[in-house]
Specification:
- The protein is α+β, with helices and mostly antiparallel strands.
- The protein has two domains: 4-157, Trna Endonuclease, Chain: A, domain 1 (3-Layer(aba) Sandwich); 158-225, no CATH class.
- It has five helices and eleven strands; from the N terminus they run αβββββββββββαααα.
- Strands 1-2-3-6-7 form a five-stranded mixed β-sheet, covered by helices on one side. A two-stranded antiparallel sheet has the order 4-5. It has a two-stranded parallel sheet with strand order 8-9.
- α3 packs across α4.
- Residues 2-103 form the PD(D/E)XK endonuclease domain.
- It comes from Nostoc punctiforme (strain ATCC 29133 / PCC 73102).
- GO terms for molecular function: nucleic acid binding.
- InterPro entries: PD(D/E)XK_Endonuc, tRNA_endonuc-like_dom_sf.
């Protein structure tokens, strides 16, 4: 069984290795040990403060604990203490990166046996600000028997959800129904993506007016010919 400090060191090592593999440059503070974050990840001109954590059950602790000669101490994280958790999940040997905003939440590595929505680890494999909760239906769980149906393939998201920037561009290039077909999901799923990201969509009737305008241009060109 790992000692608490050993767990912390292992988590930091796993996070650093994973970030380097993801082509981040990693910097570790050496002047002070009292910073509220463990390391800094740098990529594409941006720095991100990372708090490395080891978690057997996927819980994102929203406070730090330590002991000294004066006893045990506890301090809740402030919203600006760091940017992302680097959470090492030993049961699957993976690292996930939820924003500090997810503090206090839990991230699952196995499907649940209850109808309660949950966060799934594969939705946090890179620095993640926004994630939608999953449901047991996506994993073929039979709530009558509380077992996973062996004939139902436990699946993760069928497609990689586009980034906020990509989705923000796509919604002005084509209707949500077309975007859904392109990604193999329903238009309702695209609506949820927009809501989760806070992406503004074209107003009602936009695509009809655009199609009508295009038709008028084509007719004008045809008449001139």
């Amino acid at each position: 069984m790992h000692h608490t400090k050993d767990k912390g060191d292992l988590a930091a090592a796993k996070v650093i290795a994973d970030l380097v593999e993801k082509e981040y440059s990693v910097f570790v503070p050496v002047v002070t040990e009292h910073a509220p974050f463990d390391l800094i990840a740098y990529k594409n001109g941006k720095c991100y403060r990372i708090q490395a954590k080891y978690s057997c059950d996927g819980t994102l602790k929203n406070k730090s604990n330590w002991a000294d000669k004066n006893g045990c101490h506890e301090k809740k994280y402030k919203s600006d203490d760091f940017d992302f958790y680097g959470l090492y999940l030993p049961d699957i040997n993976k690292v996930v990166y939820p924003s500090i905003k997810f503090g206090g939440c839990g991230i699952r590595t196995t499907p649940p046996k209850s109808p309660n929505p949950f966060y799934w680890w594969e939705d946090f494999t890179d620095l993640t600000e926004v994630a939608l909760k999953r449901t047991y239906k996506e994993f073929g769980v039979d709530l009558t028997t509380r077992k996973v149906n062996p004939d139902s393939r436990i699946h993760t998201r069928k497609v990689e959800r586009p980034s906020k920037e990509e989705l923000g561009k796509l919604v002005w290039e084509k209707p949500t129904a077309q975007i859904g077909r392109d990604f193999g999901v329903s238009d309702k799923a695209v609506e949820k993506w927009c809501k989760a990201y806070g992406v503004e969509k074209p107003p009602r009737g936009y695509w009809v007016k655009k199609a009508y305008g295009k038709m008028e241009v084509q007719l004008t060109i045809h008449d001139e010919d």
